[in-house]
Fold these 4 entries.
Entry 1:
Amino acid sequence: MHQWQPYVPQGLFCVAEASCCEEFILCQEGAEFFVRRQAADGTYEETARSPYSRAAKAWKDLAATHRHEARAAS
Ligand SMILES: [Zn+2]
């Protein structure tokens, strides 16, 4: 399981990868990587910061849980 905590900016923010529908974003700030997601209330949450390989694996695991629901054509 992944630990989520409120997102606190700690440096120059950079998007490394975005999952389908941008549900999970693999982010970089300085030398640290983490996954960011948007909570139901609109705020952001982040996983524990770690080196790229670990954060990228967490991001891939999380992205795999994404259930894509195609929007019905209006
Ligand atoms: Zn999707």
Entry 2:
Amino acid sequence: MKNRLEGKVAIVTGGGTGIGEAICKKFAREGAKVVVAGFPEDPVEDVAKEIQKEGGTAIAFTANISMEANAKGCVELAVKQYGKLDILVNNAGVFPEVNLLQDYSEEAFDYMLKNNLKSAFAMSKAALPELHKTKGNIVSAGSESGVIGIAQNAPYGGTKGFIHAFMKGLAVEQAQFGVRVNIVGPGPIDTAWTHESTGPMDSKMVKNMKVATPMGRRGTPEEVANVYCFLASDEASYVTGALYMVDGGITVAKGPVGDMADSSMKDQPKDSLDLEHSKEGHTSIRDK
Ligand SMILES: NC(=O)c1ccc[n+]([C@@H]2O[C@H](COP(=O)([O-])OP(=O)(O)OC[C@H]3O[C@@H](n4cnc5c(N)ncnc54)[C@H](O)[C@@H]3O)[C@@H](O)[C@H]2O)c1
């Protein structure tokens, strides 16, 4: 089916790379006019140009959209350029570090709060007055790690759990204005993050991630973009407050808390356990 988003105006944050780039291109092919938003160093101009070359309509917006003034500026650009706003995709996010919490840096934690949480807060807040006028919708990036956690980047999973609850709350309070709010929860997707050479994951984590996924592979950004497109379209007119997993089955299988965690982590502490808490009563499993 084509032209599911004909006549719609969409902002896609983090639109210069990975899943966001695929969302921008999918939305444009389905007829939307797209604002491709990203950091100044992101290739958002390239994505907008590629869309234009294909015959679509897109414009780039470069700024840190976690700052309220920039978020407002992004919404203003959409309205100035295309006359309205129908769809906000809160896709921007960061995955800066892989470490056990005792070694996790404060910088990485703060960086995630800004770019994974405050970006969705600032953009949603700025967009809502326009979405009220069009009875539009918001689709935000959650994650399988927001449902079941992720070892070695536990704070990242926490930020995604926040997004799930935040968006569900928004769905309830904004229904009275005709605004729908939904979440897409990708599993391991084939972007820079899930490759040892381009992201913080080591080879073990990359391998475990694939093994833990019943479908046995990473998803493609395009497979995720298809679900964003459905939720953003009028076909999903009775869908709000929903979390759509696009994860190859990893969440309903075991997921990062189980199979993805390195086997060295699945052990009892090396010193003796309080007997009350020892699984085997009076003996430690290790001593058997
Ligand atoms: N790749 C995966 O396996 C995976 C899994 C689950 C969820 N996700 C989520 O999907 C989304 C996209 O991930 P991706 O893998 O495509 O990563 P990516 O790094 O390719 O894309 C994220 C983009 O957001 C931009 N960005 C971040 N903060 C920003 C800000 N404050 N202002 C402007 N731009 C900002 C980045 O520069 C980047 O271009 C993220 O929210 C991520 O948490 C990804």
Entry 3:
Amino acid sequence: MSQLKQISHNDNSAPSTPGKFKMEKSPYFNRTRWHYSLAKLTLWSFAFLVVILIFFLRSPTSSVPIDPSRRSLRTYNWGGSAWEKRVRSSARVRSRNGMTVLVTGAAGFVGTHVSSALKRRGDGVLGVDNFNDYYEISLKRARQALLERTGVYIVEGDINDEALLRKLFEVVPFTHVMHLAAQAGVRYAMQNPGSYVHSNIAGFVNLLEVCKSVNPQPAIVWASSSSVYGLNTKVPFSERDRTDQPASLYAATKKAGEEIAHTYNHIYGLSLTGLRFFTVYGPWGRPDMAYFFFTKDILKGKPIPVFEAANHGTVARDFTYIDDIVRGCLGALDTAEKSTGSGGKKKGPAQLRVFNLGNTSPVPVTELVSILERLLKVKAKRNIMKLPRNGDVQFTHANISYAKRELGYKPTTDLQTGLKKFVRWYLNYYSGGKKAVE
Ligand SMILES: NC(=O)c1ccc[n+]([C@@H]2O[C@H](COP(=O)([O-])OP(=O)(O)OC[C@H]3O[C@@H](n4cnc5c(N)ncnc54)[C@H](O)[C@@H]3O)[C@@H](O)[C@H]2O)c1
Ligand SMILES: *[C@@H]1O[C@H](CO)[C@@H](O)[C@H](O)[C@H]1NC(C)=O
């Protein structure tokens, strides 16, 4: 703008040039004026274009796609004494020998359940979540409201924000980190590969960098995934089986996470436990997962894609109910040993673990659909399709004997029972609370 003013000022001042030079100089002045007008026109057109562009980028109904990696450039409000007070109060321990846990991805499906379970038993809990729009933000907000009622505050921010994480550790000396923030989903990786690198790799490294440098270092439990088994065909999947054939970028970033965890444990003495979750489902679940959108589409009378493998082979999943997963997470936190480093340096060997958390009873996807039909009392329109080769594997089945031995992990909910609870929640949630819970 100041440039614009300057030019118009120069332009106005041109005719006031002393008259005696006018004859000789006039062609020069005309050219200058022409030049100035052109510059003015160009600038105004440019300003106009900028305004149009800003309008389109900000408009919610915009058809101009916003680069999702730009999400990281969003600025969040944090800091100040009222904010610090809120953070401290959320993280206050209320039971004897309770821990202070920073839960990343707290507005997510698993994060919400783990946070509320920790809070209920008297641990101090603080959440962090960037509330990204990978799936309906309103569901994340509803989970946040649920946690707020139990006294858990979720700080809105990105795990890539080093200053924010440092500040949080400055305000609260967390004893544990439950790291669940991630870009989940297998197929979305073809659409937005950058978001997987941003959250699952860069974000994880940033978190570990902060954890290794604070004093005392926290112990870290984090979510890996059963997808690391990839093209492995030996069942059940045991922790020692090969995991070097990922079938999706999502799986590859989780596998990378396991290797990164090894590095930070080795160099800095961070206590690290990775949990390979097997298809977690339940109330407050993720809308991008099959059991969730099958429910939605069956109710709408919309056909659902039911995958089968080559030669009409069965596609099956080791579905694991959320409460069982939560018990596994708490078991991992409770058995996590202290990190050994200080001042950013390793002082001795630290704990490094990886566990399967599954249900150890795979169910064919066709059976999942049948259970949903019975619960919803609606017949599904099944669209039988061949399993595409874009990330999903044919079969998952967890060997959970290691988690059983070390964490006392023992899943107790079968798919029928768990889906009944999911469907009850779903109907209640999407009727806007109008429909009473049976
Ligand atoms: N649900 C499953 O079946 C399953 C299976 C295997 C592994 N996992 C893993 O478990 C964890 C939790 O999964 P979920 O099902 O609750 O997923 P979710 O998407 O519901 O939760 C993840 C949360 O993390 C947040 N998040 C993402 N990137 C972030 C960032 N850069 N900074 C801050 N917050 C960020 C999201 O907003 C979201 O609320 C993830 O690590 C996921 O990969 C889940
Ligand atoms: C399950 O894993 C344990 C190691 O934790 C192993 O000893 C056992 O042989 C595995 N079982 C099967 C059936 O693969």
Entry 4:
Amino acid sequence: MPATRPTRPRNPVARRSFGRRGRRTIGHASNIVHCDGPDSPHAFDIIPLQPRNGSLDAKCPVCRGHGQWNTEIDLISFRCKRAICDHCHGAGWIETGSDPVARADIVMTPDGYPQWVVAFDS
Ligand SMILES: [Zn+2]
């Protein structure tokens, strides 16, 4: 029985043969998905629901309460490009009844100065 087990000498040439095969990919990993619209599978990934605003009644049927959706999203880094919903103008909620919807508007005062007012669309 030998007192010490002989250590195997490292072979630098053999180690080199375990390198990467093929060409190395440049840059970080990504898996970019393009969304055609709010019905695409990843359209609402990482987009929170919009808080319900005041008197608005229902979730927008187009963006389902998100107000926006991804047009492009990277499923690894989650960098994304988004589109604002033009049905609810990004609010995520819509008015379904006959209540007027308030919006900010600018009018001209009798003195000739512009002034912010709350206008109501019927
Ligand atoms: Zn919407």
